[in-house]
């Protein structure tokens, strides 16, 4: 199974800032177990908006980037779909 895009964003943040998976999950607003399920089973559906907001804030990424990763992981978008972003997403 390919690593989910949301997990790739999380892993990049963990490497850059040296934060543990449990602590990062807490800061995002999810459980460590939920993050583990994303990693091992993939995303079954879109997480709640508050979860994606928390992830964008904690990972210091535009909300649109986090949303796009979640939409691709949940199969709402495929490789050929393009998501337009605006400057207000940053």
TrEMBL record:
One of its GO terms (molecular function) is DNA binding. It comes from the Bacteria. This is Uncharacterized protein. The lineage of its organism: Bacteria, Bacillati, Actinomycetota, Actinomycetes, Mycobacteriales.
């Amino acid at each position: 199974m390919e690593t989910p895009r949301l997990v790739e964003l999380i892993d990049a943040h963990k490497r850059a800032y040296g934060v543990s998976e449990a602590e990062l999950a807490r800061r995002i607003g999810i459980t460590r177990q939920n993050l583990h399920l994303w990693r091992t089973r993939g995303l079954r559906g879109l997480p709640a908006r508050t979860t994606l907001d928390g992830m964008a804030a904690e990972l210091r990424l535009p909300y649109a980037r986090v949303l796009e990763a979640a939409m691709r992981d949940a199969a709402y978008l495929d490789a050929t779909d393009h998501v337009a972003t605006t400057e207000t997403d940053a």
